[in-house]
TrEMBL record:
Organism: Streptomyces demainii
Documented EC number(s): 1.2.7.4
Name of the protein described by the UniProt record: Carbon-monoxide dehydrogenase large subunit
Residue intervals of the Aldehyde oxidase/xanthine dehydrogenase a/b hammerhead domain: 24-138
InterPro entries per record: Ald_Oxase/Xan_DH_a/b (IPR000674), Ald_Oxase/Xan_DH_a/b_sf (IPR036856), Ald_Oxase/xanthine_DH-like (IPR016208), AldOxase/xan_DH_MoCoBD1 (IPR008274), AldOxase/xan_DH_MoCoBD2 (IPR046867), AldOxase/xan_DH_Mopterin-bd_sf (IPR037165)
Keywords attached to this entry: Molybdenum, Oxidoreductase
Segments of this protein annotated with the region Disordered: 765-790
Length: 790
C-alpha cells in the first residue's frame, strides 16, 4: 500500500510529457518511416456505387515506368474480413468484406486493385492506366430506397437490405400507457453522414523481417492486436508471425479502431514483392472512401403525466451502415448502442425500441466519437423540449423532474447506473448561464427583434465497457479486459506497458501519473510503452473512453503488485512482515522507524544482481503483470451542456455566444487533459450540429472529395468553452476514474439544436435535423403567407 503524500500526481494538471517531442517536430508518424528499397502503394478504386466487375485490365499499369507491380484480388488470394454477431439470422446478417473487390463493387471508392511503384507519384500515374469495366446496378442511396418493397439488394443474403434488426425491450402494457397519458409528444430526428477527419489520414508500412520470420506492419490503428489477428488470418500466417507497431498517431476518433482493407493489402504486397511497401491515404480517399459515420433516423414518442414526468418511451431507430459490417464491431455497433442506452439520464418506467442497421451503397460505417449517443441524446432532448412546450414548463424544470437522483439505479433497459451527478450538473450549468446574465440578455434581445436562444442537453456516457457489457451485444469478438506490465530496472526507473493506444489523449502523461503515484516515484522515472504487439502482452486498444477507466486500472494494479514485491524484499532484509513497511518517495521504509529505509535502487540490485539473497518464495527480478476487466454494466460519466446562440436573419448563420459544460468523469487523473478532451469533443459536436454532412448524387457519387466541398469549422466558429468539473469517484475502477473522451461530442449537437429552437420560439418554427444549415435557419425565420404554409 502507498502512504498519502503531499506531492500526489493524480488529480494534478502536470505538463504533458508528449508535447516537447511532438511540438518540436520530433514525432514519428507512419508517413515518417523510410526504409531501404521501400515501394509505395495506391489503390484502384471503384468509380460506380453498385455494379458487377466485368473486366480488370492492368496491362498498361504494369507498363508505366516506375511501376513495380499491380495486383487484383485473384493475384493475392486473400481471406475476407468478416465481422459477426452471435444472433439468429432474423436479427443479424454477416457480410464478408473482401480485401480487394472480386466480382462486385458496392460503393464509390471501394478498392479493386493495388498498384505498387517506386514512389507515390508514379503509383498515382499507374492508377490512371487501369482499365476496369462494370455493369452498373441501381445504387441504394438512402433509407427510403433501402427499405422500399422490392428494392435491389446490396447483398444478396440481406433481405430488405437489413443487416441488423433487434427489438431489445418492450415493456408489457406500454400501449395502454400511451393511450392514457395526458401528454404524448413525437419527434422525427435525422442526422447527417459525417467523416471523423483525423488530422493524420490512415496509412501503413509493411515489411518482412527475415531474422524474426515475421511480417512487421507499422500502421496508425487504435487496435493493434485486432489488426494482427485479421492480418494473420487473411494472409494465412501464424499470429506470432505478424507484429503490429503503432508509432505516433495524429487522431483516430474511432475511425481507426476497425480493421481496414488497405493495410491488409499493403502487407500482402510487401510479402509478395519481398520489399517494404508504404501506403498513405490521401484526403480525397479519406473523405469519400474511408469509414464514415452518423447517418441515423429516430422516430420517437414519449408519454408524460400532467406534471411533466415521463411515463413511457417508444423509439424506432434506423442507422445507415453503408456497404459492409466493420470488424470487429459489425453493423450492430450503432443500432445496438442506441437501443440499449437511449433512456440515458432519465427515469423511464416503460420502454420499447426497435433498432435496425441497413446497408446502402456508401462507404462502410465505423465507430465515431460518441457512437450513436450524440443522436439518441438529441432525440431524447428534443422530446423533453417538446413536452416542456406542450405542458408550459420551463425546459430545465422538466429535466429536473425526470433525471435519475438515487443510485445505484437499475433502468428499464436492465442497465445498472453507478453514482453520478445528473441533477447537480444540470443545476450548476443553468446557474452559470444565469449568473453570466444570459437570460437577461436574451429578454432584451427579443425586445429588439433579435433571435437569441438558450439550450441544454443532459446525458450520461457509459464508459469502461468490460467484457460483460460487450457480451450483451452478442459479438463474436468480445472486447473488454486490458493487460498491463510494470517493470523496474536496477536504476529504479520503471517501464510500463498498456494495451490502450494514445492518439491524442496523453497516455504518456496520465498513465505515468498513475504509476508514479502508486509507487511513490518521480514522474521522470516512468516510461510508457504502447502500440507494439510484441512488447504488449495483449490489449483491446482505445475506444469507448476506456483508456484510463480500464487500461489505467490495469496499470494501477500492476504497479501495486510491483510495490508489494519491493516491500516484500525490504521486509525480508529487515526480518519483518511486509505490512510493517510502506512505499515513500523512491524507497521502502519501516513504519515503526520512518528513518530506516531502503532505496528502490538497492532493492533492484538485490532482485537482479544479488538474487541469491532473496527468500525462496520471492522470484528474481522486478516485473508485475495485471489484468483488469469491468465485471458489471460499466461506469457512467455524465454532463450537462448549456449553449447560447444568436440566429442572424439576413444570412441564416448560427453564432454561438456562450458555451458551458459541467462534466463528471469520476477522478480526473489530469484535469487539463480532461478539459482538452472536452473542448475537442465539443468542437466535433458543434461541427456535426452546424456544418458537416456527406451527401450523394443520384448515381451514388459522394459530393465531398475535398474541404472545398465538405464544410468544417475553423477556430472562429468554435466558441470559448467554460468547463466546470464535478467528481463522483467510480467504485468499479482501480483509479476511481470513469471516461472523458467522448462526452463533449455527445452533448454538443443536442444543446446547439435546442438553443436554435429556443431562438426560433417566437416564430413557431422548430427544427429536428442536423446539420442546421443557413438555408434551413433562413427559411425558418422568413415569414410565410397563409398560401405558403403547408
Amino acid at each position: 500500500m502507498t502512504s498519502a503524500r503531499d506531492d500526489q500526481l493524480v488529480g494534478r494538471s502536470v505538463a504533458r510529457r508528449e508535447d516537447p517531442r511532438l511540438l518540436s517536430g520530433r514525432g514519428r508518424f507512419v508517413d515518417d518511416i523510410e526504409l531501404p528499397g521501400m515501394l509505395h502503394a495506391q489503390f484502384v478504386r471503384s468509380t460506380v456505387a453498385h455494379g458487377t466487375i466485368t473486366g480488370i485490365d492492368l496491362t498498361r499499369v504494369r507498363q508505366v515506368p516506375g511501376v513495380i507491380a499491380a495486383f487484383t484480388a485473384a493475384d493475392l488470394e486473400l481471406g475476407d474480413i468478416t465481422a459477426r454477431l452471435d444472433r439468429p439470422p432474423s436479427e443479424f446478417v454477416p457480410t464478408a468484406m473482401p480485401v480487394l473487390a472480386r466480382d462486385r463493387v458496392r460503393y464509390v471508392g471501394e478498392p479493386v486493385a493495388v498498384v505498387v511503384a517506386r514512389d507515390p507519384y508514379v503509383a498515382e500515374d499507374g492508377l490512371e492506366a487501369a482499365a476496369v469495366t462494370y455493369a452498373p446496378l441501381a445504387p441504394i442511396r438512402c433509407e427510403e430506397q433501402a427499405l422500399a418493397p422490392g428494392a435491389p439488394r446490396v447483398h444478396a443474403e440481406a433481405a430488405g437490405n437489413t443487416l441488423v434488426d433487434v427489438s431489445l425491450f418492450a415493456t408489457e402494457g406500454i400501449d395502454e400507457v400511451f393511450d392514457r397519458a395526458p401528454c404524448v409528444v413525437h419527434v422525427d430526428v435525422r442526422t447527417g453522414r459525417q467523416n471523423a477527419l483525423p488530422l493524420e489520414t490512415r496509412g501503413a508500412v509493411a515489411r518482412w523481417d527475415d531474422r524474426e520470420e515475421q511480417l512487421v506492419l507499422h500502421t496508425c490503428t487504435q487496435t493493434p492486436h485486432q489488426v494482427r489477428t485479421v492480418a494473420s488470418r487473411c494472409l494465412g500466417l501464424d499470429e506470432r508471425a505478424v507484429r503490429v507497431i503503432v508509432p505516433d498517431m495524429g487522431g483516430g476518433f474511432g475511425l481507426k479502431c476497425v480493421v481496414g482493407r488497405e493495410e491488409i493489402a499493403t502487407a500482402a504486397a510487401a510479402l509478395r514483392l519481398g520489399r517494404p511497401v508504404k501506403w498513405i491515404e490521401d484526403r480525397k480517399d479519406a473523405l469519400s472512401a474511408s469509414f464514415l459515420a452518423r447517418e441515423q433516423h429516430y422516430r420517437a414518442r414519449a408519454a408524460f403525466d400532467a406534471d411533466g414526468r415521463i411515463l413511457a418511451l417508444d423509439t424506432d431507430v434506423v442507422c445507415d451502415m453503408g456497404a459492409y459490417s466493420c470488424y470487429p464491431f459489425t453493423a450492430g455497433i450503432e443500432p445496438l448502442m442506441a437501443a440499449a442506452e437511449m433512456p440515458g439520464v432519465y427515469k423511464v418506467p416503460a420502454y420499447r425500441v426497435r433498432g435496425r442497421g441497413i446497408t446502402t451503397n456508401k462507404a462502410p460505417t465505423a465507430p465515431y466519437r460518441g457512437v450513436s449517443r450524440p443522436q439518441y441524446v438529441m432525440a431524447m432532448e428534443r422530446l423533453m423540449e417538446r413536452a416542456a412546450r406542450e405542458l408550459d414548463l420551463d425546459p430545465v424544470e422538466i429535466r429536473r423532474r425526470n433525471v435519475i437522483t438515487e443510485f445505484p439505479y437499475v433502468g428499464v433497459n436492465n442497465i445498472t447506473y453507478d453514482p453520478g451527478s445528473y441533477l447537480e450538473s444540470l443545476d450548476l450549468c443553468e446557474r452559470s448561464l444565469r449568473e453570466a446574465g444570459w437570460y437577461d440578455r436574451q429578454a432584451a434581445a427579443r425586445a429588439e427583434g433579435r433571435h437569441i436562444g438558450i439550450g441544454y442537453s443532459c446525458f450520461s456516457e457509459r464508459t469502461g465497457y468490460g467484457s460483460t457489457a460487450f457480451a450483451q451485444r452478442k459479438m463474436e469478438v468480445v472486447p473488454g479486459f486490458d493487460v498491463a506490465e510494470v517493470r523496474m530496472d536496477t536504476s529504479g526507473a520503471v517501464t510500463a506497458t498498456t494495451g490502450t493506444i494514445s492518439h491524442g489523449q496523453s497516455h504518456e502523461t496520465t498513465m505515468a501519473q498513475i504509476v508514479a503515484d502508486t509507487l511513490g516515484l518521480d514522474l521522470a522515472k516512468v516510461k510508457l510503452h504502447q502500440g507494439d504487439t510484441d512488447r504488449v502482452t495483449y490489449g483491446w486498444g482505445t475506444f469507448a473512453s476506456r483508456s484510463i477507466a480500464v487500461g489505467g486500472s490495469a496499470v494501477r494494479l500492476a504497479a501495486a503488485k510491483l510495490g508489494d514485491k519491493l516491500r516484500a524484499i525490504a521486509a525480508a532484509e529487515w526480518g519483518v512482515h511486509p505490512d510493517e513497511t510502506e512505499l515513500d518517495r523512491g524507497r521502502v521504509r519501516r513504519r515503526d522507524a520512518p528513518d530506516v529505509a531502503l532505496t528502490y535502487e538497492h532493492l533492484a540490485d538485490t532482485a537482479y544482481l544479488r538474487s541469491h539473497l532473496l527468500p525462496k518464495d520471492i522470484d528474481p527480478g522486478l516485473t508485475a503483470t495485471a489484468v483488469f476487466d469491468v465485471h458489471n454494466d460499466g461506469t457512467f460519466s455524465n454532463a450537462t451542456h448549456g449553449v447560447v446562440v444568436e440566429l442572424h436573419e439576413d444570412t441564416g448563420q448560427v453564432e454561438i455566444l456562450a458555451y458551458v459544460c459541467v462534466e463528471d468523469c469520476g477522478v480526473a487523473v489530469n484535469p487539463q487533459v480532461v478539459e482538452g478532451q472536452c473542448r475537442g469533443g465539443i468542437a466535433q459536436g458543434v461541427s456535426g450540429a452546424l456544418f458537416e454532412q456527406i451527401t450523394y448524387d443520384a448515381q451514388g457519387e459522394p459530393s465531398a472529395t475535398s474541404f472545398m466541398d465538405y464544410k468544417v469549422p475553423t477556430a472562429q466558429e468554435i466558441p470559448e468553452v467554460v468547463i466546470h468539473h464535478l467528481e463522483t469517484p467510480c467504485a468499479f475502477t482501480a483509479t476511481g476514474a470513469k471516461g472523458a473522451g467522448e462526452g463533449g461530442t455527445i452533448g454538443a449537437p443536442a444543446a446547439v439544436l435546442n438553443a436554435v429552437n429556443d431562438a426560433l420560439r417566437p416564430t413557431g418554427a422548430e427544427l429536428d435535423n442536423t446539420p442546421i444549415t443557413p438555408e434551413t435557419v433562413h427559411r425558418a425565420l422568413t415569414p410565410r403567407t397563409p398560401e405558403q404554409t403547408p
